[in-house]
């Protein structure tokens, strides 16, 4: 019941089930005291009578599949049961109407004549006792479908349990990934501190490189969780990052940085915006090529606003074409972050030429008093 099946397999299994279902209920007549005639009208009438269970079941199963999206538990069971009884009543009326038109109920068994007469009477002619009898008959006939529909509900219940198990497994897997992501930085930073202590007496240049690397890691992991960050701190981390990359690519990369105006320690900006713009410049202008390249950065700070301009060379030959395709994704994310933090109080201009790519960002400087 839980494994996927082809259409042919489903048809085969359902056909075998309904043949067994009808054959089982026809065994009732083997010990019946009612005199059975094996003429065509009787055989066909009983065949049609039991075949009516099939459309009623599939109608109820279809409605059950729709109801389970909105209801569950007792409500789902009760609603499905009511719909099955109504569908069975409609099927009984239809079958007895067809038998009356084709053969006449008087030529069939006593049970058909009795119950067929009740179902085919006009509603105004039936009394309370007749309606109660019809209800009991509909419920009695409907209970024969409890087996196949019960199997359907069991299948649904098992699949729900499997889905819950899979969701729980995914959650535990994600929690484990998060936990590992939290533990790994601690291990890395502690290891870097140990390496720095051992490296300092050996090479001052390598030690300074390691200090910059440690500062960038600490900044990105622990100091960027809030929406806003002190401009001075982000600028410091940005300088360490560019210093690392300049040393890493040596003569192939030229980095020029200019700062105009004094950076006050009480001024805040949206976290990681300047840092991400710088990362993008290196990602698309430096990492993507083996050619000579350059990155220029200018920070102009006034009393209450800043202007940040960053430009990079554009490689002619990309070593990683994927970088060229997704170059616009980072800028869209940055723009969304600025809209959330600053509304429309910023300007973001992009100049994309054949040989270079430049971004100019102008935005206000925020103080802690403005945040509170």
For this entry, give a set of tags:
372 residues, alpha+beta, 5-stranded mixed beta sheet, 3-stranded antiparallel beta sheet, 63% helix
Description of the molecule:
This protein is an alpha+beta fold. The protein is 63% helix and 13% strand. The protein has 13 helices and eight strands. It has helices at 7-26, 40-51, 53-67, 73-102, 110-120, 128-142, 146-199, 204-222, 231-249, 273-285, 321-325, 327-342, 368-371; strands at residues 228-230, 253-260, 267-270, 293-301, 305-313, 347-352, 356-364, 366-367. A five-stranded mixed β-sheet has the order 2-4-5-7-6, covered by helices on one side. A three-stranded antiparallel β-sheet has the order 1-3-8. Strand 4 (293-301) and strand 5 form a beta hairpin. Helix 4 crosses helix 6 and helix 8 crosses helix 9. The longest helix is centred in the middle third of the chain and has 54 residues, at 146-199. It starts with 6 loop residues before the first helix and ends with a helix. The model has no long low-confidence stretch (mean pLDDT 79).
Describe the secondary-structure layout.
Elements lengths: L6 H20 L13 H12 L1 H15 L5 H30 L7 H11 L7 H15 L3 H54 L4 H19 L5 E3 H19 L3 E8 L6 E4 L2 H13 L7 E9 L3 E9 L7 H5 L1 H16 L4 E6 L3 E9 L1 E2 H4 L1
Parallel strand pairs: 2-4
Antiparallel strand pairs: 1-3, 3-8, 4-5, 5-7, 6-7
Helix pairs in contact: 3-4, 4-5, 4-6, 7-8, 8-9, 9-10, 10-12
């Amino acid at each position: 019941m839980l494994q996927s099946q082809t259409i042919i397999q489903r048809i085969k299994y359902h056909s075998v089930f309904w043949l067994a279902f009808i054959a089982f209920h026809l065994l009732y007549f083997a010990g019946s005291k009612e005199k059975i005639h094996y003429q065509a009208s009787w055989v066909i009438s009983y065949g049609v009578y039991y075949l009516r269970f099939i459309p009623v079941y599939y109608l109820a199963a279809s409605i059950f599949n729709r109801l389970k999206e909105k209801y569950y538990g007792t409500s789902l069971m009760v609603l499905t049961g009511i719909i099955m009884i109504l569908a069975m009543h409609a099927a009984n009326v239809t079958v007895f109407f067809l038998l009356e038109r084709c053969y006449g109920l008087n030529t069939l068994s006593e049970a058909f004549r009795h119950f067929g007469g009740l179902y085919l009477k006009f509603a105004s002619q039936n009394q309370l006792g007749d309606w109660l009898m019809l209800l009991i008959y509909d419920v009695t006939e409907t209970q024969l479908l409890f087996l196949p529909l019960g199997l359907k509900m069991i299948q649904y219940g098992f699949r729900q349990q499997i889905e819950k198990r899979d969701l729980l497994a995914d959650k535990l897997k994600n929690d484990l990934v998060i936990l590992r992501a939290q533990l790994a930085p601690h291990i890395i930073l502690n290891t870097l501190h140990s390496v720095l202590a051992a490296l300092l007496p050996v090479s001052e240049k390598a030690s300074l490189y390691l200090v910059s690397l440690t500062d960038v890691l600490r900044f990105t992991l622990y100091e960027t969780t809030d929406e806003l960050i002190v401009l001075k701190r982000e600028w410091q981390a940005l300088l360490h990052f560019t210093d690392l990359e300049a040393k890493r690519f040596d003569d192939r990369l030229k980095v020029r940085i200019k700062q105009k105006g004094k950076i006050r320690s009480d001024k805040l900006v949206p976290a990681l915006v300047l840092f991400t713009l710088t990362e993008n410049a290196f990602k698309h202008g430096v990492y993507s090529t083996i050619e000579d390249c350059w990155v220029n950065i200018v920070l102009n700070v006034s009393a209450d606003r800043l202007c940040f301009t960053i430009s990079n060379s554009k490689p002619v030959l990309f070593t990683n074409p994927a970088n060229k395709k997704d170059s616009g994704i980072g800028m869209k994310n940055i723009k969304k972050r600025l809209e959330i933090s600053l509304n429309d109080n910023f300007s973001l201009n992009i100049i994309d030429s054949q040989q270079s790519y430049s971004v100019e960002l102008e935005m206000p400087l925020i103080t802690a008093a403005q945040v509170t």
